[in-house]
Design a protein that fits this description.
antibiotic resistance, MATE_fam, transmembrane, MdtK-like, xenobiotic transmembrane transporter activity
Length: 445
């Protein structure tokens, strides 16, 4: 029995563990190197470096959005086609995904580099912050194609039944970045540009690693020249399914911009730096949840394609239990050690006070995020893009953006911190209602 067939035959609990653990480890390490990056920047460049990276963050989120559009859309289709035992079309999807990644990433880099300064100023970069943000973002944009290849195609490695190899991709990139960051910042004195350069080099190595997998004999799916030519039906399907995470990331970019403007108004540049720290820690806390979500995706997609709905139901249930448990552990860590965690990034007492309080409030609803993430992932995994988009956008746009604009008028800076948990509660209720209806339908099919 090969790895793909195991998705429909092995015990669900065993599969979920096998697929989620590598994803959790890989994503944790990936998030950890972002945290370590910020620690190095905060201590090596100072508060202005943290502010610059936070100002530039929406641009990075937009680039990530296009990577998710293709990577998640293609990997979901690959899972479903493999469940249908249609390997030839799965390889066609892989080839089209590579073409889409190459074209979109290069186009984004050109646009970003041409209009870099106006973009950064529009995102809130003050004159003293602009040179730092420009240096950092320019290098990231130059290496954009490597990030898209490594991140986008790694999803397909997981979808074809190789979660450990997908984890190795992330580990290699993360570990290299952690080694290069202090080397470039503290030994070679390259400043904030050194941190960006470390990231790009790490992403380049990751991209080479992923491409080599699909070119060697050990992969189930392989690159074939004829599959690189765009098939508009496949392109359309990839975009349709990937639209939910794409808009989620775009919305995250808009949200970050709104947060930054609100933080500048109610707390100044130091509050923006604090939010940069809070965002990194939030990502670290959410990565185990997203790891379980990613681990469940190929199991759900394969069995849904194979019409084994009892296994789909069991996967969703066990994934919710696991994600909820991990999110509660993360909640306890943040609430108990919030100020100590923020203090790792910088020793400025004002920054620690701002960041510690913000972290505690923003992650106050973390225990319910695990459920919401798995519930939304279910609709993504079975190809119901409209529902996945609805639940994603309900949290990121329909609820969160109005809260960011409204709550600070009554509670000032505290209102900005409160916007996130308010949206978490509302989105979890909405997603839960629809998931309950969907799973009841599966039981009678």
């Amino acid at each position: 029995m090969n790895a793909t067939q195991a998705l429909g035959q092995e015990p669900v609990g065993k599969l979920l563990w096998q697929f989620s653990l590598p994803a959790i480890v890989g994503m944790l390490v990936n998030a950890l190197y972002n945290v370590v990056d910020s620690i190095f920047v905060g201590n090596g460049v100072g508060e202005i470096g943290l502010t610059a990276v936070t100002i530039a963050f929406p641009i990075m989120l937009v680039m990530m959005a296009f990577g998710m559009l293709i990577g998640v859309g293609a990997s979901t289709l690959v899972s479903i086609r493999l469940g249908e035992h249609n390997k030839a079309e799965a390889e066609y999807i892989l080839g089209n995904a590579l073409t889409m990644i190459a074209v979109l990433s290069l186009l984004l880099s050109v646009i970003g580099l041409v209009w870099l300064d106006p973009l950064l100023v529009a995102l809130g970069a003050e004159p003293e912050v602009l040179p730092y943000a420009r240096t950092f973002t320019r290098i990231i944009l130059i290496g954009n194609v490597f990030m898209h290849v490594g991140f986008g195609l790694n999803n397909i490695i997981r979808a074809e039944g190789n979660p450990r190899l997908a984890m190795a991709t992330m580990l290699i990139s993360a570990m290299l970045n952690v080694v290069l960051n202090p080397l470039f910042l503290f030994v070679m004195n390259l400043g904030i540009g050194g941190s960006a350069l470390a990231t790009v080099i790490s992403q380049f190595v990751s991209a080479v690693w992923v491409l080599s997998h699909f070119l060697n004999k050990g992969s189930l799916l392989k690159f074939r020249l004829r599959n690189l030519r765009p098939n508009w039906r496949i392109v359309k399907d990839i975009i349709a399914i990937g639209m939910s995470p794409f808009f989620m990331q775009l919305a995250a970019s808009v949200v970050t911009v709104l947060y930054n403007f609100g933080l500048i108004r109610y707390g100044g540049d130091l509050a923006v730096a604090a939010m940069g720290i809070v965002n990194r820690i939030t990502m670290l806390m959410l990565m185990p949840i997203f790891g379980i979500s990613q681990g469940a995706q190929p199991i759900i997609g394969y069995n849904y394609g194979a019409r084994q709905y009892d296994r789909v139901f069991e996967t969703v249930k066990k994934a919710i239990y696991a994600a909820s448990g991990l999110s509660f552990i993360g909640f306890l860590i943040v609430q108990i050690f919030n100020y100590q965690i923020v203090g790792l990034f910088n020793n400025n007492s004002q920054l620690i006070a701002l960041g510690g309080r913000g972290l505690s409030i923003m992650l106050s609803m973390l225990p319910i995020i695990g459920f919401q993430a798995i519930a939304a992932q279910y609709f993504q995994a079975v190809g119901k893009a409209r529902y996945a988009l609805l639940f994603t956008m309900s949290r990121q746009v329909l609820i969160l953006i109005p809260m960011i604009l409204l709550l600070p008028k009554f509670f000032g800076l505290t209102g900005i911190w409160l916007a996130g948990p308010t949206a978490d509660v509302a989105a979890a209720v909405l997603t839960g209602i629809y998931l309950y209806r969907e799973l009841r339908t599966l039981k009678v099919m």
